[in-house]
Known about the structure:
Layout: H1 2-8, H2 12-28, H3 43-52, E1 64-68, H4 76-85, E2 91-95, H5 99-112, E3 116-119, E4 129-130, E5 133-136, H6 142-151, E6 153-155, E7 158-163, H7 165-174, E8 178-186, E9 194-203
Parallel strand pairs: 1-2, 1-5, 2-3, 4-6, 5-7
Antiparallel strand pairs: 7-9, 8-9
Helix pairs in contact: 2-4
Amino acid sequence: MAILENLINVPRETIEIIKEYSSILIENNKKINLISKNDEKIIDQRHIIDSAQIYDLVDKTGKKYVDLGTGSGFPGIIISIMLKSEKNDLESVFYEKSNKKSDFLQLVKEKFKLNVKIITKNVFNEENIESETVTARAFKPISQIFEIMTKNFTKYNNLILFLGKKGKQSFLDASKAWDFEYNERKSITSDESLIINIKKIKKK
């Protein structure tokens, strides 16, 4: 966890909360498939640091932040813990259709008293969603995420995507059918991955 602390100057108290969350996740991973067993040994680099690196891109001036397909909590829980450490009252809204994973997220929310709302529904069936920042990590193909952003959201400022090696080609393919503004930067956890910050999505 020292890497995380050095990277983003996170207070020691926040680091301790993240460590405890990591321990709770690994313990619950014995009963629920939250992350792969192989990832347990590299959870800091593979999941925690990977999630934390987008914190500066999250719009913290509004009322709401949405994470699509939150799963075991990456990046949603990490962002929520960091928001709390800054005493920012931005509400985090997690869409996770799995009951078991939603129950785990509820456990973490209550344990650390996070300002989180968990919606155990398929986001494709939701309407009139509003948010400042939206994140999606290992969720759905990019074209499907863009469909959600244009059909299910009535307001958003930016969408943050985590792209691996295969995701780069999917992003190029999506650009053939969609117009959007974006900035990209290399992920700090993998030379083959990108962080994409997207705005103003519309179908061509």
